[in-house]
Design a protein that fits this description.
The structure holds two protein chains of two kinds. Chain A is built from six helices and no strands. By secondary structure, chain A is mostly helical. Chain A has one domain (about 1-175). The radius of gyration of chain A is 18 Å and the shape is globular. Chain B has a domain at about 180-255: Thrombin, subunit H (Beta Barrel), CATH 2.40.10. In chain B, about 35% of the residues are buried. Classes of the chains: A mainly alpha, B alpha+beta. The interface between A and B is large, with 46 and 50 residues.
């Protein structure tokens, strides 16, 4: 069931940012999947997170016109990095969690920028990286933690809903 | 001999290296390997289409109805009457605008000898580093990879990937885009490439050619993709350096990519092989 919740969230984020949050005014919009990947890294084991990461990475790469595989790469390495960081960081801390989200957005922005500047057949100029990445990190640092809270609360609601469904079904199973 | 930590570090380094090599290989191609990108189009694009349609209708309602009705707050009776009239009027005006737009497209379509397919934009690339859109026509509608995409105002881009019902279009402003073009007034030739932001660069224009800001740039038809004579943009900046044989020219596209709603996909190649040539 938790796979369903995660898939719905990532599908919603992908569709939301490819239909509504696009256009000339949104050049500093960061990938909304970055805070979600940080959330998965902090709260979910690889068994529950990897299928969602692979699906969302391939979906973003398929929709985007950038280097194929770059989103998948960013999500997987970001997840590994967050899992590693959680071994020695108190990530529930009110300061560390937003920092972790900002670091995730920074990492993702840098990976995508690196692919656009270095790996593609028609590279962007290097000087274009700083304004884009700095804008994305700033927006990510401000809004990313709120998204994290939304994911955490959403999971609690989903858990309660699942429990109530099973509780309703339970008495029917017993003879 | 080796500690567990060293093996782990070595493994991470190897994985990063393999990862970068794979990305370098895929970075040289605009199409995703093994149709993986098409899979994403198949799964995500139908939702994009529904989402876009839903929010367009919400936006229209908000802009056309609530906003106008709120201006007539001073009189309840008039507000009600005015609201009903405006609602009706807005429906008519929306229909009229859509009608004009489609007639414009239809008239334009008749001017072009090649068959065209009208498509609606259902999604856009959220990344700042690539400029693509998703349209709601695919291989089932005879849309093929490499098909040019235009609107009456000028060139939009080229189809880089197509699933059965949806296609991904690389916009003219993407750095991977290139159109063989010429200045309409002086016939100076060059290649228009995407500049990444809202402009294009006009490369390989010889210094000897007299061109000026405001000149219209059109497709030459020599690239075998875009038919001849389609507007690409207007020259917005010219830099003639002391050295070198080319001038640096910037072009502002005639198409406003921010408000693209419908596009036309040319379903046959611009270049027709001469009779007898296979």
């Amino acid at each position: 069931m938790i796979y369903g919740y995660h898939l719905i969230i990532c599908l919603f984020l992908i569709i939301f940012q490819t239909t509504l949050l696009v256009g000339g005014k949104a050049v500093h919009l960061y990938d909304l999947m970055a805070p979600f990947v940080v959330y998965l890294g902090v709260y979910h084991l690889p068994r529950g997170a990897l299928p969602v990461l692979v699906f969302s990475g391939l979906a973003m790469d398929g929709i985007s016109g950038g280097v194929f595989g770059v989103h998948l790469t960013a999500y997987l390495w970001m997840y590994v990095g967050v899992r590693w960081a959680t071994q020695f960081l108190q990530v529930g801390n009110v300061i560390l969690l937003p920092l972790l989200v900002a670091a995730g957005v920074l990492f993702e922005s840098l990976v995508v920028a690196f692919s656009a500047v270095v790996l593609t057949s028609a590279p962007w100029p290097v000087e274009s990286v700083f304004p884009v990445v700095s804008g994305q990190v700033l927006w990510g640092a401000v809004t990313g933690p709120f998204l994290m809270l939304f994911f955490i609360r959403g999971q609690k609601v989903a858990d309660r809903a699942i429990k109530s469904i099973y509780a309703e079904k339970g008495p029917l199973r017993t003879p | 001999m080796f500690s567990k930590r060293m093996i782990l570090v070595a493994l991470v380094i190897v994985l990063v290296a393999v990862n970068i090599i794979l990305l370098t290989i895929t970075g040289k191609h605009t199409q995703a390997p093994s149709g993986l990108g098409r899979g994403a189009l198949v799964i995500v694009s139908p939702f994009q289409k529904q989402f876009t349609a839903f929010f367009d209708s919400l936006k229209d309602t908000w802009n056309q109805y609530f906003y106008l009705v709120s201006t007539a707050e001073e009189n309840q009776r008039l507000k009600k009457a005015l609201g009903q009239s405006l609602e009706q009027l807005n429906r008519y005006s929306e229909t009229e605008i859509a009608n004009d737009r489609l007639r414009h497209l239809l008239g334009f379509e008749k001017e072009i000898p090649q068959p065209m397919i009208a498509a609606q934009v259902v999604g856009k690339d959220p990344s700042a580093w690539s400029k693509t859109i998703i349209v709601d026509k695919g291989t089932r509608d005879s849309v093929r990879q490499g098909a040019p995409v235009v609107i009456p105002e000028g060139i939009v881009g080229v189809v880089v990937e197509a699933s059965a019902r949806y296609a991904k279009v690389l916009l003219l402003t993407d750095p991977n885009s290139a159109v063989d073009a010429l200045v309409q007034r002086t016939r100076a030739r060059g290649i228009v490439k995407g500049g990444g932001a809202d402009y294009c660069v006009f490369d390989y224009v010889l210094r000897k050619h007299e061109i000026s800001v405001g000149d219209i740039v059109v497709s030459s038809g020599l690239d075998g993709v875009f038919p001849k004579g389609f507007r690409v943009g207007r020259i917005s900046e010219i830099v003639r350096q002391n050295a070198g044989i080319f001038q640096q020219v910037s072009v502002t596209p005639t198409v406003d990519f921010e408000i693209l709603e419908e596009v036309l996909i040319i379903s046959e190649p611009a270049y027709e092989s001469p009779p007898g040539e296979l």
